[in-house]
């Protein structure tokens, strides 16, 4: 009997998109435009929140602004739970992907057209929900294009990651130009147009995806629909009440997201491992995912500071002068995607050439986390400098190390999650991987308040050494983790 994952045609029949299944191009495209809009907006979000009203911003306290950015980023990946659950229990991954793209468009339009706090509140909530739903399901849809033993899988995910970073590169550059020349809302408007382009493109190509992309893995009995509706209404009412009573505030929202994500993570691990619908081998693989999850959290809590601490660093410490012209702050967010675009294909070719000789997934995760810690230590030679004195090339070098670490964690994490996932929890396991990003991103916002531009050494040293220690621990325990993975590498 064929595996439930075996939904692709033979490799020979599908080598039509850079050697990958042709349908990969459709998901590649919508994810590229989603990242264009997401990073285009996020590239100017922090400075919009803390720039003065006279400069077109909202004039928030800088620590509060960075906390909001971290909490928002955490909420994006937290909402993958919602999208994954709806995909696995109600609609299937492909339909959720399409609906999520529509919600993202609405969110960016709100940011572009609604003024002040209302635009930020409505826009960020919609973009967070839509992006979360799209991210978990897009990864699941890519997974349906490959048989379990298809050696092109890691290379395919690396190409998928290339599409993500093409959008991530152009988004901050173009929205940053508009923001610096005509204002923040024009930048947000361009992000909306980018997502509209992605939605239109995907609308024409979605019919070519395999039927497995629309399969509901674990259908919810219709008798339980009213209970689910009641739970959703109760959660929404609780959130509104907590906001109105001041329990959830702008200055503690990052901490709130961290608590919620930790609770959701524990609940999901318990839900999956205690299910009667998984085999003993599948349960062992889920347990093997725990150390990978921890390493991923450590990695993302440093990496996602590109949108919190690194924004402030680029604004006040970095020399952004290029031949007498000052580069927009948001352009720093396009440096990492350039390296991804250049190196993702190299990584894909390397893993393909090495085949079974490539490092195991735990080893890749360990090296990626360790390198991320090294990247933070690289800030030390230029720490505590005068304003606008850090050479741009030095930051470019640091972000190159960021990128190498990212290629060892992110596309590899997406790939291994689809391989470790129990058949009944395919999309929800992917949501667990995104929960690690959610937790790391929220932590990036929460720890940003400890960043002191006048004394940067303790901040970069402590966080860098913690990441290095976690990487070393995973590296020495790689063999027992592999044993738990039951044949998955």
Plain-language structure description:
Helix 11 packs antiparallel against helix 15. Residues 1-15 have low confidence and may be disordered. The protein is an all-alpha fold and 489 residues long. It has helices spanning 11-14, 24-50, 62-78, 80-91, 93-113, 116-143, 153-182, 184-205, 225-244, 253-273, 280-303, 309-316, 335-354, 361-377, 392-420, 426-447, 457-476, 478-484; strands at 321-322, 325-326. The chain is globular and about 60 Å long. It has a two-stranded antiparallel ribbon. The protein has a single domain, classed as MFS general substrate transporter like domains (Growth Hormone, Chain: A), CATH 1.20.1250. Strand 1 (321-322) and strand 2 (325-326) form a beta hairpin.
Topology of helices and strands:
Layout: H1 11-14, H2 24-50, H3 62-78, H4 80-91, H5 93-113, H6 116-143, H7 153-182, H8 184-205, H9 225-244, H10 253-273, H11 280-303, H12 309-316, E1 321-322, E2 325-326, H13 335-354, H14 361-377, H15 392-420, H16 426-447, H17 457-476, H18 478-484
Antiparallel strand pairs: 1-2
Please identify which CATH superfamily we are dealing with: MFS general substrate transporter like domains
Provide the structure class: mainly alpha
How many strands?
Answer: 2
Q: Which CATH class?
A: Mainly Alpha
User: Which ranges are low-confidence, i.e. pLDDT below 50, for 5 or more consecutive residues?
Assistant: 1-15
Helix content: over 70%
* Quaternary structure classification: single chain
**What's the structural domain tally?**
1
Q: What is the terminal separation in angstroms? A: 24 Å
**Number of DSSP helices?**
18
CATH topology: Growth Hormone, Chain: A
Order of helices and strands, N to C? HHHHHHHHHHHHEEHHHHHH
The fraction of residues in strands falls at under 5%
Across the major sheet, the strand order is: 1-2
| Mean pLDDT reading | 83
Backbone CA Rg: 21 Å
For the largest beta-sheet, the strand count, sense and barrel status come to:
2 strands, antiparallel
